[in-house]
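Technical note accompanying the year-one report. For the benefit of new consortium partners, we illustrate the data format agreed upon in the data management plan: each record pairs a sequence with a structure-token string. No post-processing was applied to the example shown here.
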Amino acid sequence: MPMIQADDGVRLYAESTGNGTPMLFIHEFAGDHRSWEPQVQYFSAALECITYSARGYPPSDVPADPAAYSQQRAVDDAVSVLDALGVRRAHVVGLSMGGFTALHLAMQHPDRLLSAVAAGAGYGAQPERQDRFRRECEATAAAFESEGAARVARRCPARVQFQNKNPRAWAQFAAALGGHSATGAALTMRGVQAARPSLYGLAAELAGIRVPVLIMTGDEDEGCLEPALMLKRAIPGSGLTVLPQTGHTANLEDPAAFNREVDRFLAAVDRGAWRRRDPRSLSASTTGMIR
């Protein structure tokens, strides 16, 4: 497949597998287009699965200008991929950094989405954690520049579950991460991760989402548990799935469970059974007997 060109000239590498309703996958910070292989193998029997590497992630271009990296740019790049492949509307599945982008797509481009899955979306979103998160982002960016990607990834506490549960898949993940561009990783960490707006400051925009949304998190992904609950409460047409004894890289750590939950969600969306929350369930009364 030829490289896709974003509106600022940056080229993005993308792959399309299968036929049917389009399904766009947006990877996490430590991943790339290859991170979705278990999902592509599962869903491409019935759907067109589209994966791509974000800017800063070879074989996509790695622009040297820090201004080329931002949350808005990530959203615009996802739209560029859809446009280049002639996709009018798609199901979108994002993990972590990609989950943030999936939510922003639902807020900004609902006409392009059939549904959205936001998995592991929440790192640094809580107001009381933002300053510390930004300091950690800067430290991580500096570590990528000085140590390289592989050594940085092995220190992440949210991925020890992955390492323990599926050592072979972990080794493949770490090897792929070791080939990432240190420059691209550092610029992405500073421009996208550290600088993105807090989801807690987007309450009105989240409440206005009209496309069906599935929020997913692992119960041992500490940075995402409270944000997942906030998103469930904020988005009227959302559902929340919590995967047991699972960390941050849920789609690789437990692909069978991840695929099953996404498949159920898509089936409900397709048959019109995924509904917005009934306001009556928001009563301050626990039993409904006192109003």
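Partners are asked to follow this layout when depositing records. Strands lie at 4-5, 11-12, 14-17, 21-26, 47-52, 90-95, 113-119, 213-218, 238-243.
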